[in-house]
Amino acid sequence: VKEFTVNPVGIIRSPFVKKDDAPIQGAFVPDTVGQVELFSEFAEGLKDIEGFSHLILLYRFDRAGEVELVRPTFLDDVPHGIFATRHPCRPNGIGLTVVRLLGREENVLTVSGIDVLDKTPLIDIKPYVPRFDAHPEAASGWFAGKEPRPKPTGRE
Amino acid sequence: VKEFTVNPVGIIRSPFVKKDDAPIQGAFVPDTVGQVELFSEFAEGLKDIEGFSHLILLYRFDRAGEVELVRPTFLDDVPHGIFATRHPCRPNGIGLTVVRLLGREENVLTVSGIDVLDKTPLIDIKPYVPRFDAHPEAASGWFAGKEPRPKPTGRE
Asked: Among A37, A73, A116, B36, which residue has the least CB neighbours within 10 Å?
């Protein structure tokens, strides 16, 4: 199984300049607006995206610290396996957020519910399709009952 | 915005050996069972994953063809922008599927609803959290009303 190279296709603009400013999850800040700017050479690939109300963004956690396979998270002081969390310090450092699509102007999408740091490298955009992606009945594991709270310090 | 290297963390086993065998989406084959095998050095990162009923898998489309930014898809003969589709031939070649977690034995997860080719490189596992990820009301764009059909030939 071989390694491969990822070349970002754009950049995400958000109001969150510092790590401490960024929310734990976009779902906790549904009204936060940001821009997803595709590099112009990829703009053609956005054709028909306006039909979708929600998009899945894949991006690079480019300011994350060292990977720890078992660790406390922003939402819980109990350590969990990294693959049972959405924490940034993970193998391959790829993040995923579902955002709402508000509008498009050429190669720039305006979205809400964004939770990434400003200038985060964009890796991919996928249309959110409820038939594939919506499982409201899914069990939330240790997330069940956890409420948003201020980020504990020193937790990256 | 810099490129970076991805090193797979495991391998996905499925009944689909040839491209023509693989379904268009896992949601169309909810009963298909496969295994997600994490390389043993990452096994510790699975702690507490059993509490989740659904997982998001990120994987490498390692047998996809050339990227075309606007193209017909498996479900539609009308061309769409690649970022408005889930087609494998996309910039950075990263796929996403939501699967149901059936069980775990050490570093191997058994899942259902798998749609990838056998021996697909695994990039990441994320817990599916309905509060973040379930948007049953989302608009499906051009997917609306499209039904599963045999894959058109020559469409990768």
From this structure: A37
Please state the pTM of the whole predicted model. Answer: 0.95
* Residues 39 through 78 of chain A touching chain B, CB cutoff 8 Å: 42, 44-54, 56, 58, 60, 69-70
Chain B residues close to A7, C-beta within 8 Å: 3, 91-92
pLDDT at residue B118 tops 80 = yes
Q: Per-residue pLDDT tens for B38-65?
A: 999 999 999 999 999 999 999 999 999 9
Distance from CA of A155 to the nearest CA of B (A): 17
What is the Cα–Cα distance from B131 to A54, expressed in whole angstroms?
A: 14
Asked if the C-beta of B141 comes within 8 angstroms of chain A's C-beta atoms, the answer is yes
Burial class (CB in 10 A: 0-12, 13-18, 19+), B63: middle
Contact A81, B125 (CB under 8 A): no
What is the token pair recorded at A154? 């020193």
User: What is the interface pTM, i.e. ipTM, of the complex?
Assistant: 0.94
Q: Is B127 helix (H, G, I), strand (E, B) or coil?
A: strand
From CA B122, how far away is CA B11, in angstroms rounded?
5
pLDDT over 80 at B156, yes or no: no
Provide the CA A118 distance to its chain's centre, in angstroms: 12
Instruction: Name the burial class of residue A119, with classes exposed (0-12), middle (13-18) and buried (19+) by CB atoms within 10 angstroms of its CB.
Output: middle
Q: How far is B20 from chain A (nearest CA, A)?
A: 20
